[in-house]
């Protein structure tokens, strides 16, 4: 009778305090960078947000409203914000800088063990096609992580256009390219190598595909990318990465960034630069983002956009320690001194203290009560406390 739906979790007070502290630190940093917070409904129409969200259909929570329309619990925040921006906010020819902190919902398989509801905090920069915008959101993400208390993390940056063009050059069809990209998404590099060896390609092309796996590292990866690609389309993606590196360097954040040109994403709406961030011993990315210039076209607007989302649960796992709650004072009172207790609590709360008021008749174990709180004040009977 105490079971929760699959993938749902409770957040107990100590963990909630930590989440609140991390969330507040990041929100304040985003505001300092000029981003404005926005809220969207938890429920969206399947035909709009659900269909363009890039989350697999079987991971969507679906339900019907009274008119028979199919609704979904929002599986991400990028698509809902794109809907709002396209319909209500893109009135002037200036970029929008929007931020959010919200729960998203993705149904999980029984054996997965992952949460089906989790909180994301992130930003969307909409209406700017420049590499400066990509650099800004990456620099803001790095700054936000530092504000939250993380000191050791790594941002991996790639370009989905480079991967797609490189594979098309060698493999010829999008279907064959997608089959190989699946190994990259799963980070199954053994499977990737075996698949390449089994392909009916020349030894030179097979070698190029295998050398592709080595495109990870610092600034030197850019030149190696130029060497592997054959035409202008793929080279443009590498040029963009070079511009991004210069932008990140001007922010002074190059120590936190590495290139990984093998990086791909399950989010199909990414069109250019994309990135993931890893920290500590967490086995999954604690955040990710990228450019999605075509998504707003599905809502009737043609403009560029980029952004990122951080997972609060994974960030807290990376931090490794829970935030200590501020000390709470308990005032235990009897009926005769109730008013005095109320006045004392009011004064202390006005001074910024946390105060619990407790009628002595509601406590079965006074020792347990005094052990729980930082200080206990007794106002009992008619004498002094």
Automatic annotation (TrEMBL):
Q: Where does L-histidine bind?
A: 76-78, 106, 120, 124, 269-270
* Keyword terms of this UniProt record: Amino-acid biosynthesis, Cytoplasm, Glycosyltransferase, Histidine biosynthesis, Transferase
Parts of the chain that traverse the membrane: none
- PROSITE patterns from the xrefs? AA_TRNA_LIGASE_II
Gene Ontology molecular functions? catalytic activity, acting on a protein; glycosyltransferase activity; histidine-tRNA ligase activity
Localization: Cytoplasm
Q: Which GO terms describe its biological process?
A: histidyl-tRNA aminoacylation; L-histidine biosynthetic process
Domain Aminoacyl-transfer RNA synthetases class-II family profile: where?
A: 7-327
GO CC, one annotated term: cytoplasm
Coiled-coil intervals: none
**Which InterPro entries does the protein's record reference?**
aa-tRNA-synth_II (IPR006195), aa-tRNA-synth_II/BPL/LPL (IPR045864), HisRS-like_core (IPR041715), HisRS/HisZ (IPR004516), HisZ (IPR004517), HisZ-C (IPR053846)
- Pathway terms, separated by semicolons: Amino-acid biosynthesis; L-histidine biosynthesis; L-histidine from 5-phospho-alpha-D-ribose 1-diphosphate: step 1/9
Its biological function? Answer: Required for the first step of histidine biosynthesis. May allow the feedback regulation of ATP phosphoribosyltransferase activity by histidine.
Please report which protein family the annotation says this sequence is part of.
Answer: Belongs to the class-II aminoacyl-tRNA synthetase family. HisZ subfamily.
Assembly, in brief, is: Heteromultimer composed of HisG and HisZ subunits.
Q: What else is known?
A: This function is generally fulfilled by the C-terminal part of HisG, which is missing in some bacteria such as this one.
- Its recorded name reads ATP phosphoribosyltransferase regulatory subunit
Species the sequence originates in? Bacillus methanolicus (strain MGA3 / ATCC 53907)
